[in-house]
Amino acid sequence: MTGIVRAARLEDVPDIYAMVRELAEYEKSLHEVRATPQDFEAALFGPSPAVFGHVVEHTNGAGTELAGFALWFLNFSTWEGFHGIYLEDLYVRPHLRGHGYGKALLAELAKTCVERGYRRLEWWVLDWNEPAIGFYRSIGATSMDEWTVQRVTGEALLRLAQNGAAAGQRMSGEDD
């Protein structure tokens, strides 16, 4: 059995989408998946892609299948003054774990960072996902315990946009 890490292709989208749903189910969040395969096609392969992907092809006597994926995008550190990679999702199908595919995907992203002069490779992990945390520690990852994640979404996002726009008008004197 062998595996090859490569850039995602348009024909990989159905498998990537299926694995995203598998990951969401594992994370007890399948009900939150709203994305469609068409959303992934547009994000990864549209006219101005801002999301990138790598996959692992697993080959054995029965054929080839996608074993896992990594979806990522660029971030920027104002303190470093350089881009980095933010890994949105890393997933290896359960029946293909133990072959080193997760590490191979991360190594490919680390290689991309080094080649392009990016200074960071970072991601989030659920605090209850002990197998993943153990794996990440084994490759030298450290947690950012002093930071907490903040998010604005849904109705709160709409309110902020509306209130912010109104505040912007008041600040500029447009409604005086």
Rg over CA atoms: 19 Å
- Trace the largest sheet across and list its strands: 1-2-3-4-5
**Tally of extended strands?**
5
Q: What is the CATH T-level topology?
A: Aminopeptidase
| Class by SSE composition | alpha+beta
- Count the helices. How many? 5
Order of helices and strands: EHHEEEHEHH
Low-confidence stretches: none
Q: In percent, how helical is the residue content?
A: 25-40%
User: For the record, what is the CATH homologous superfamily label?
Assistant: Gcn5-related N-acetyltransferase (GNAT)
Round the mean pLDDT to the nearest integer and report it.
Answer: 92
* Strand residues, percent: 25-35%
Characterize the largest beta sheet: strand count, sense, and whether it forms a barrel: 5 strands, mixed
Domain tally: 1
Which second-level CATH architecture applies? Answer: 3-Layer(aba) Sandwich
CA-based shape: globular
What would you note in describing this structure?
The protein is of the alpha+beta class. It has one domain (2-145): Gcn5-related N-acetyltransferase (GNAT) (Aminopeptidase, 3-Layer(aba) Sandwich), CATH 3.40.630.30. Helices cover 38% and strands 25% of the residues. The protein has helices at residues 13-26, 37-45, 101-116, 130-138, 154-172; strands at 2-7, 52-60, 63-77, 82-92, 121-123. It has a five-stranded mixed sheet, sandwiched between helices. A hairpin with a 4-residue loop joins β3 (63-77) and β4 (82-92). α1 (13-26) packs across α2. The longest helix has 19 residues, at 154-172. The protein is globular and about 70 Å long. The model has no long low-confidence stretch (mean pLDDT 92).
